[in-house]
Specification:
heterodimer; A: 264 residues; alpha/beta; Rossmann fold; nine-stranded mixed beta sheet; two-stranded antiparallel ribbon; 13 strands; 27% helix; B: 327 residues; seven-stranded parallel beta sheet; five-stranded parallel beta sheet; binds flavin-adenine dinucleotide; binds adenosine monophosphate
């Protein structure tokens, strides 16, 4: 029984940044990269199912779509308990939106036939919140988004899940499997990778494929496979706070004044 | 392709506000795109007709299905696809709600429509729809278009568009959609745990702490600081997820709405859209953050770039000194 966990290498911007020459993204030199926070939780959820069912032969597969640099998030997933990893890339994937990314994940899902696909509820850089549920749409699988509880026994025809909605309201439901779900922060306590497991991760298999090798045509990948296109990206010209300058003591004093002014 | 279709969201018998905001967003686009229809999918759709008969709505389409007593993504997706194939609207608007997260991407795939989520600006340029959303933790804005797409589906950021209040008298059309089947079943609702007397919605003054606090050991001193200032202590989601403070203190979309707050001091909070949601009614926001580019500074009236622990230390000293002086 397999569980696929798609993971993303997300970017956060430095204090100062510049736009790329074509104005459609930030210059990558001004970015720091890490594993998407939500994916820490989906890896943990998958590994917990494996550990709770030691005789079920559960295999956890970490998958990422990205250039070579993205191997670092796969190694992290392997160190946190994934059994093997797959990375898909070719230059024509440049400019993909999340739907075009989902098309590739869906192809891997068709090929590997897992019982569960656990995506993050959203990515912490662009917060699209679309990739996982787009995969479900492409493979026509049952699905549920923003899951804070997942109860699944390998081989079962359904899973018990809880979705967390607005205002903290929880809906408990039964979902047919195989299924795609997206995992919300707080579903579990992700483990830290030990030094030993980091070392062991280097010995675990990491396969690299192109989208073409998966059987995707040129029309399905990259820009042609996308449902949106970035025209322009820019730092907004918005009203900014009035900045309180000075030493911490002066800043605190001004803050106390503001409290008095606002509340009286 | 012409016209605009808005999905009417409801939950536990109540119409949801996000769909009303989508009606507001559609109003400005009607002149270009054509009439506005609302689609209600429910076990008894009639009961939602009245709350959605507002603003620029021209038609309310109802689809009755016993499996849609509550939102079920597979039923919704199938019904929406069929109604959209029949009506051929050029623009489909949904709230960027948790229900839509489970629904909209599959719908976009099924229709091969242009698609963008969490949109807060829509305009037409040379006959094409251009949508604006944010990127890189709200630090940049992104304009998207949808080349060669006949239809576009957008999910709209909560609070970005104004819900109309005037009543309308739309035409009502009942449609039958056969053969759709749920793939999940609702078992129960669970309301958030009782607040234990913590009253974020009713508080006038909130001091809220986020992940910038660094360590659980620092929580206590902020609880004391809030008390000495007369503020209610609030927090961002990671602090509640960690179990450092009860969920009743969490401000934001999956927590509490600071509905009556005149002053909100956010310390070590980046300003994620889901946190901002909880602050949308606050009169004055003060942000303390060590990152001068944190998006919270885009909504705060006053900002302090600095270490929240240092600022808290100074506040404590100065409050203590003032007390001593007052004797
Ligand atoms: C469906 C959904 C619902 C959600 N609902 C909510 C919700 O209700 N409420 C909510 O809060 N979040 C919610 N979230 C999570 C949200 O997206 C963010 O992840 C969260 O708000 C981030 O919390 P934060 O600002 O404390 O942490 P971070 O984003 O990690 O920000 C920490 C900030 O602290 C600053 N900092 C670090 N050290 C210091 C220091 N010493 N002094 C000063 N500043 C410092 C950093 O510069 C940074 O800006 C939800 C997410 C999803 C997907
Ligand atoms: N490049 C990628 N490779 C693998 N998975 C991805 C990729 N991008 C997004 N995902 C998955 O989609 C989730 C985020 O959804 P979204 O906000 O739509 O980007 C992540 O947590 C991953 O599970």
């Amino acid at each position: 029984m397999k569980i696929i966990v798609p993971v993303k290498r997300v970017a956060s911007l430095d204090d100062e940044f510049e736009m790329r020459e074509d104005g459609r993204d930030v210059e990558p030199d001004f970015c720091e990269f890490d594993l998407n926070e939500f994916d820490e939780y989906s890896i943990e959820a998958a590994v917990q199912i494996k550990e709770a069912n030691p005789d079920a032969g559960v295999e956890v597969i970490a998958l990422t779509i990205g250039p070579e640099d993205a191997d670092e998030v796969l190694r992290k997933a392997l160190a946190k308990g994934a059994d093997r990893a797959i990375r898909i890339w070719q230059d024509a994937l440049e400019g993909s939106d999340q739907i075009a990314i989902a098309r590739i994940i869906a192809k891997v899902v068709e090929r590997e036939q897992p019982s569960l696909v656990l995506c993050g509820a959203q990515s912490s850089d662009h917060a699209h919140a679309e990739t996982g549920m787009a995969v479900a749409g492409l493979v026509h699988w049952p699905h549920a988004a923003v899951i804070t509880h997942l109860d699944y026994r390998p081989g079962a025809q359904s899973a018990l899940v809880e979705r967390e909605l607005e205002g903290g309201l929880v809906e408990r439901l039964e979902l047919e499997t195989p299924a795609v779900v997206t995992i919300q922060l707080g579903i579990n306590k992700p483990r830290y990778a030990s030094l030993r497991s980091i070392k062991q991760a280097n010995a675990k298999p990491l396969d690299v494929l192109t989208a073409e090798e998966l059987g995707l045509s040129e029309a399905e990948i990259g820009v042609p496979g996308s449902l949106s296109r970035v025209r322009r990206m820019f730092p907004p010209d918005r009203r900014r706070s009035e900045m309180i300058e000075g030493t911490p003591a002066q800043q605190a004093a001004r803050l106390l004044e503001i409290i008095k002014e606002t509340l009286h | 392709m012409s016209g605009i279709l808005v999905l009417a969201e409801h939950r536990r018998g109540e119409a949801r506000p996000g769909s009303l905001e989508a009606i507001g967003a559609a109003e400005a686009l009607k002149a270009d795109l054509g009439p506005l229809a609302i689609l209600i999918i429910a076990a008894e759709p009639q009961k939602y007709v009245e709350p959605f008969a507002v603003g620029a709505v021209d038609e309310i389409i109802t689809v009755a299905n016993p499996a849609a007593k509550e939102f079920e993504p597979h039923v919704y997706e199938a019904v929406l696809s069929r109604v959209i194939e029949e009506r051929k609207p050029s623009l489909i608007l949904l709230p960027h709600s948790i229900d839509s997260w489970g629904l909209a991407p599959g719908l976009a795939i099924a229709l091969d429509a242009g698609f963008a989520t969490d949109v807060f600006g829509i305009r037409r340029e040379a006959g094409e729809i251009v949508a604006t959303r944010a990127g890189y933790q709200e630090k940049v804005w992104v304009e998207l278009d949808f080349p060669q797409k006949q239809q576009v589906i957008l999910t709209l950021r909560s609070g970005a568009f104004r819900a109309p209040t005037e009543l309308a008298s739309p035409k009502i059309t009942a449609l039958e959609v056969e053969g759709v089947k749920p793939r999940s079943s609702h078992l129960e609702w669970r309301d958030p745990p009782p607040s234990g007397g913590i009253d974020i919605p009713g508080s006038k003054f909130i001091l809220s702490i986020g992940r910038g606090i660094g360590d659980e050991a620092n929580i206590e001193q902020f609880a004391e600081l809030a008390e000495s200032l007369g503020a209610t202590l609030g927090c961002s989601r990671p602090i509640a997820d960690n179990g450092w403070l009860p969920k009743a203190r969490q401000v934001g979309q999956s927590g509490q709405l600071a509905a009556k707050c005149s002053l909100y001091i956010a310390m070590g909070i980046s300003g994620a859209v889901q946190h901002q949601w909880g602050m949308k009614h606050v009169e004055t926001i003060v942000a303390v953050n060590k990152d001068p580019e944190a998006s919270i500074f885009g909504i705060a009236a006053y900002g302090i770039v600095g270490d929240m622990l240092e600022i808290a230390d100074e506040l404590r000293k100065q409050v203590a000194a003032a007390h001593a002086e007052a004797g």
